[in-house]
Amino acid sequence: MSIELQAGKVHALVGENGAGKSTLFKICAGVIPSDGGKLSLDGTAYNPRNMRQAQAAGVALVFQEMTINPSLDIAENIHIDQMQKYAGVLGISRWRNLRRSAQDLLDELGANISVNQKLHTLDLGQRKVLEIARALSYRPKVLLLDESTAFLDTREIETLFKAIHTLREQGIAIGYISHHLDEVDQIADTITILKDGTWVGNFERGELTNKQIEARMVGREIGENIYPPLQPFKNQEVVLSLTDVTIPGILKPTSMTLYRGEILGLAGLKGSGGEFLIRSLIGDEKLSAGEMRLFGQPYKPKSPVDAWK
Q1: CB–CB of 10/187 below 8 Å?
Q2: Domains and CATH numbers, the chain
Q3: Are 15 and 179 in contact, with CB atoms under 8 Å apart?
């Protein structure tokens, strides 16, 4: 496949899961090698062996997964490479310069964030802006954003988009991956569609409707009703109940009920406690408060083996 990112433009990649979007960005950012073809940067051959080489050349990638370290403060998270370089031992002068530089990067993005704020006061959108500030510290010519809005709400997305608009005005070439076509329509200048690792085409914003984009992504028209209709659930036999179960620092008091024959879905952002809740159900995580009942009887598994029995 062949694509071209231009200075001061946002180029979106869209396609189903497994279409090759993230793989392409990782190749460009030196995370994984390419099996063939050529990369060029400013008209010169470009073949990064790792992320550091890519960053030094002017290409930075912001991953979909949040990479903020909660044990570090805001400035340290932005300049984490400097922290690693000096093994976390910074003199007063270097420390002040690091904080000043971090604040300058945040101001450059138009973010209403101070390095003096506590990290836990930032919402997910602001934390994603921190990751962009970290990428910006490498002074990239090309910034690649992989599913950066995946865990954000509407307000947090607005915060992120303001930062992207600022970077576009600075002349940075921006690659943007998203499954949300309404977002792509708002932010992208050019759209590349991928399907099963194959390039489908490049299109200017507004050239295709969202339905036409979807059809090219999957290779067919998508109907309105793709799921079978759900029947009302009537079984009232309680199998498992949780009342105000709590895990210190991870899960606030949570209650739920599971009925026989029911499929109960757990939804939430990464780090919201869902995986720890599941682990507590199999005795792999200790609760500090609350009650669990299985078929009406107290249920306190001490281990996964105990839960299995």
Answers
A1: yes
A2: 10-218 (3.40.50.300), 238-308 (3.40.50.300)
A3: no
60-70, pLDDT tens digit by residue?
999 988 888 88
DSSP states of the chain: ------TT-EEEEE-STTSSHHHHHHHHTTSS--SSS--EETTEE---SSHHHHHHHTEEEE-SS----TTS-HHHHHTHHHHHHTTT---HHHHHHHHHHHHHHHHHTT----TTS-GGGS-HHHHHHHHHHHHHTT--SEEEEESTTTT--HHHHHHHHHHHHHHHHTT-EEEEE-S-HHHHHHH-SEEEEEETTEEEEEEETTSS-HHHHHHHHHTSPPPS--SPPPPPP----EEEEEEEEEETTTEEEEEEEEETT--------TTSSHHHHHHHHTTSS--SEEEEEETTEE---SSHHHHH-
CA distances from 235 to 107, 111, 239, 266, 285 (A): 56, 50, 11, 20, 30
Label residue 23 exposed, middle or buried (CB < 10 Å: 0-12, 13-18, 19+).
middle
> What are phi and psi for residue 22, nearest 5 degrees?
-65, -35
* pLDDT, tens digit (0-9, with 9 covering 90-100), for 169-186: 999 999 999 888 988 999
pTM for the model stands at 0.71
Side-chain half-sphere CA neighbours of 191 within 13 A: 27
CA angle 194, 163, 193 (to 5 degrees): 10
For residue 222, the number of C-alpha atoms closer than 13 Å in the C-beta half-sphere is 13
d(CA 203, CA 11) in angstroms, rounded, equals 10
